[in-house]
Amino acid sequence: MSFEPYAARTHEKMKEVLMSPGAAGPAIHYYMIRGGSKKRNITVWESGQVDGEYIKTYGHYHVGDLDETYWIIQGDGIILQQKMVVEGGVPQPEKIEEFKAIPVKAGDSVYMPPGYGHLAVNTGKEWFVTADDSPVEGAEDSASMPGHADYAMVKQMRGFAYYVVDKSGTPTLVPNPLYKEVRKSDFGGIAVAEQ
Description:
Blueprint: E1 6-10, H1 11-14, E2 28-33, E3 41-45, E4 49-50, E5 53-54, E6 61-62, E7 68-74, E8 76-87, E9 90-105, E10 109-112, E11 117-122, E12 128-132, E13 149-150, H2 152-156, E14 162-167, E15 170-175, E16 181-186, E17 191-192
Parallel strand pairs: 9-16, 15-17
Antiparallel strand pairs: 1-2, 2-3, 3-12, 4-5, 6-13, 7-10, 7-12, 8-9, 8-11, 14-15
């Protein structure tokens, strides 16, 4: 199998992490072109919502001490970052040590520290486009579900600790009820509401 630089994340796959998995959505939520170690990666999000939840990436935790930077090329969005509680050397997916919501626009960049899960949300009315320096490379590290990333714990929790939803035209954070604890939060000035 050779390295596949292009992948699209379908609505069917995204149902695993949506607030309303049974709701209708676009056939494709976002498009990825992976450059490997020699080029930056490009991701393009559809605009819109699925039952009030803004279009987002699946979300993942990096394997090992990998860090990453996102550069926002076009649009408006929110980057979510979260770090799991580790007890006895074992990550606890339902407990979050720190959660951050970072509003972004074209021209911004965001650093993803090692150990933090992250996802990005398109809160605008146009394409949301980013470049990143994640080292997706090699035959077993395709753009579809790269080997440097752990998606299983995000799938287990049906997304991150908060969903980003539209409340009267304003992006708002709504807690994911599967999480038992969020110890420290920085909502970045974004409103928080109950479901």
